[in-house]
Amino acid sequence: MADAVESGQRHNILDSDGQPHPVQNILTLFTLVVGLVAFVLGMLVRNTHTSAAVIVTTTALGLVACLVGLYVQMVSSTREQRILIVAGIIAGFVGLAIALGHGGFTA
Hints:
- With 107 residues, the chain is mainly alpha-helical.
- The protein has one domain.
- It is built from three helices and no strands.
- It has helices spanning 22-47, 52-75, 79-101.
- Helix 2 (52-75) packs antiparallel against helix 3 (79-101).
- The longest helix has 26 residues, at 22-47.
């Protein structure tokens, strides 16, 4: 019966080790979101005629996702964090590569 009683404390899915990691969790989600945005913008750059501003933005976001993601990967604590970080790094890299193929920062 004691197992059915909740402690009133919400557990974060990224903190599977039982320890709170607020900065790492924020950076993990930042990497994932920025990487996905860079990926989507990269698909727009690839499939439509976009302005130079979109290409430069995609390049910058992809680069930020890769660099922040690599740092967070070094300091991450849980497997769940690493899964989301790698997904964000890969998405950011794809967006970065597509943008660089269309001129990158000099578009």
